[in-house]
User: Which sequence fits this backbone?
């Protein structure tokens, strides 16, 4: 199979996701993306947040709606990945029903799918598997240059 491309925002190079994507066969293009952190082609983009960043974006900076809105106007499919070990928030003072409400709201209002992963390795596997499927379904070049 020919390598598939994934554009990675330069801010994400500190995480181990990009290196794991390369090990899984992706051709990585490091760039500055206007929206999203990982882009498969001009159709699919990912926003990756750690669980702590996700919770902070809901309760403190409240910019997640705006950021997701920008992604959904730029890409047909936006996928939010929330990465962290305690997906069901044990030991936190946050009501899980509020988080579920938030996830449902972004699904219905913005059409954003939310996936939960345990760590960077699992995150890279999710991105890689979706990129491979997209590449198989649309074998023409992914046109990374058009997504900047």
Assistant:
């Amino acid at each position: 199979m020919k390598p598939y491309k994934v554009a990675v925002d330069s801010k994400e190079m500190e995480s181990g996701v990009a290196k794991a994507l390369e090990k899984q066969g992706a051709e990585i293009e490091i760039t500055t993306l206007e929206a999203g952190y990982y882009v498969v082609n001009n159709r699919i983009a990912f926003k990756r947040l750690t669980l702590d960043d996700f919770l902070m974006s809901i309760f403190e900076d409240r910019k997640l709606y705006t950021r997701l809105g920008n992604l959904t106007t730029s890409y047909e499919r936006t996928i939010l990945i929330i990465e962290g070990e305690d997906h069901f928030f044990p030991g936190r003072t946050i009501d899980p029903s509020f988080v579920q409400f938030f996830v449902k709201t972004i699904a219905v209002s913005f059409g954003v799918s939310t996936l939960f992963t345990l760590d960077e390795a699992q995150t890279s596997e999710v991105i890689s598997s979706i990129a491979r499927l997209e590449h198989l379904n649309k074998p023409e070049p992914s046109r990374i240059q058009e997504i900047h």
In short: The CA atoms of residues 49 and 82 lie 5 Å apart. The longest helix spans residues 120-137. Residues 141-148 have pLDDT under 50 and may be disordered. The domain at 4-147 is CATH 3.40.50.10130 (Rossmann fold).
